[in-house]
Design goal:
Layout lengths: L30 E4 L3 E2 L3 E2 L4 E5 L2 E4 L4 E4 L4 E4 L10 E4 L4 E5 L6 E5 L11 E5 L9 E2 L10 E2 L9 E9 L19 E5 L6 E8 L6 E4 L5 E7 L6 E4 L5 E8 L14 E3 L15 E8 L13 E5 L6 E3 L2 E3 L4 E6 L3 H6 L4 E3 L2 E2 L8 E5 L2 E4 L1 H7 L7 E2 L8 E3 L6 E4 L45
């Protein structure tokens, strides 16, 4: 029989197309299942099932949780911060969540009307070094299941590819004290080792941070933070890893959650100390774009890159634009280290801010001031940064309006000028000619994984 007959099944989420050699194909039903709050043995989820987490789920006992491509995991919305939903991969356990651009793995809110802060975080806890030796993830109860830290630099907490996190970041209180290590938010990686794979992960509409690196040595590529409430990339407690192709993008003129939201913030420890290892992220090809608008219209927003509390850092071949208080800000402890040009480096970047005089700034005794000496240092023939007075001069295809396209247009200064000669870039990094996260191939174009709404 050559005619096609298809049934409309209102109770079915998705169904397969009918074949010519059969009257009706059986529908492919997307089931919904609730996960238990404890996984102690290896478990692989069903690719044709959507899952719900009601509360806080811990993967323990060296178990591996495998999530197939295309699966959505939703967290029940909780109002109490101490009850916010989390998925915790404890020390020795692993999360294998390998999606694709067409079939990403999505962690989101189960609420009918989703909002930032509906749930907490996906938390990976490893055995790589931190400058506190060990610790417990902030915002969760003290227990063996929240502990991180150790001496295994190449520790493996699993693999995350083509993953999106939505509407998380609910554990931290609004206007939290910025002198403490943040409570867990977004994708929180504490003492996660270099044996872990993190590639093509996007965090959108988090109420707090998008990506947290708390100690550890994990490397990562192709990360996107979009319209989150606090820092998109946050580093603490001795993180030492390598990162390439990062995007921080914000269209909102203010944060209703944070006192001073940054694109990128690095921090050593609260007091601070010189305990080893010192926080030292090594970053290439990052694009940080703040919202369009005048400086006075932007509230609760701070810096493109804020380096503080004894941090060492390397940021090169990157684009920073449209933050009201500056493109790069250092503090009393990090400024002298950067100016020596030995442990910290800021080179070959295109840097813009709403205030040209504060593009390179100093958080001097709790007051943000323009720093002419730092600017002269940044623009010299050794560091080769470029001050971009007007962000339109970056000539990116679509900085604002609808879906951003941060590909350099013809004549853009971002098309060339990257440099990978420094020793920090001798391994891991893909050596490209362009500055910023995107070259001719827009890997962040809107698709099933990269959602810009």
């Amino acid at each position: 029989m050559k005619s096609k007959v298809c049934l409309l099944l209102l109770t079915v989420v998705a169904f397969a197309a009918c074949k010519k050699n059969s009257d009706i194909m059986a529908p492919v039903v997307t089931k919904i299942d609730t996960l238990s709050n404890s996984i102690t043995t290896d478990m692989t989820l069903d690719a044709n099932t959507s899952y719900v987490i009601n509360g806080q789920l811990y993967v323990t006992n060296n178990a591996t949780l495998t999530i197939p491509a295309g699966v959505t995991v939703s967290f029940v919305k909780m109002d109490e911060k101490e009850k916010k939903g989390v998925l915790v991969i404890t020390q020795g356990a692993k999360l294998i969540a390998n999606g694709t651009a067409d079939k990403p793995i999505v962690f989101t809110s189960a609420a009918g009307t989703k909002a930032p802060g509906d749930w907490g975080a996906v938390i990976l806890l490893g055995k790589a070094p931190t400058n506190t030796v060990t610790g417990n993830v902030e915002g969760l109860p003290l227990s063996d299941n929240t502990r991180y830290g150790g001496t295994t630099a190449d520790d493996n907490s699993g693999s995350l590819k083509y993953v999106r996190l939505e509407y998380c970041g609910g554990i931290n209180p609004d206007e939290e004290g910025e002198w403490q290590v943040d409570k867990a938010s977004g994708l929180c990686m504490a003492s996660v080792g270099s044996g872990t794979t993190v590639d093509n992960v996007m965090t959108v509409h988090s109420n707090d941070d998008a990506f947290q690196f708390v100690g550890g040595t994990v490397n990562a590529t192709h990360l996107i933070g979009f319209n989150n409430g606090d820092d998109d990339f946050d580093f603490d407690l001795g993180y030492q890893g390598k990162l390439q192709f990062l995007i921080s993008y914000r269209s909102g003129l203010s944060s209703s959650h944070s006192q001073r939201a940054n694109g990128f913030e690095s921090y050593n420890d609260e007091f601070p100390t010189t305990n080893a290892p010192l926080t030292r992220p090594v970053v290439a090809n990052m694009t940080i774009i703040g919202p369009a608008g005048t400086e006075t219209a932007k509230t609760s927003l701070n810096q493109g890159v804020y380096i503080r509390k004894g941090t060492r850092f390397v940021v090169e071949n990157s684009i920073i634009a449209e933050y009201p208080q500056g493109g790069l800000m250092v503090c009393n402890r990090t400024r002298p280290v950067l100016l020596t040009g030995i442990e910290s480096f800021f080179k070959y970047n295109l840097v813009n801010s709403d205030s040209a005089s504060r593009t390179f700034s100093w958080d001097k005794d709790f007051a943000v001031v323009g720093d002419p000496e730092l600017q002269q240092f940044a623009l010299n023939s050794v560091n080769n940064n470029v001050l971009i007075t007007n962000s339109a001069d970056l000539k990116l295809k679509t900085m604002y309006g609808g879906v951003p396209d941060l590909t350099p247009d013809a004549g853009s200064p971002a098309l060339t000028g990257a440099n990978f000669n420094d020793a920090d870039f001798s391994s891991f990094f893909t050596k490209v000619a362009y500055r910023g996260a995107i070259g001719a191939d827009n890997w962040a174009a809107a698709n099933n994984w990269a959602v810009w709404k």
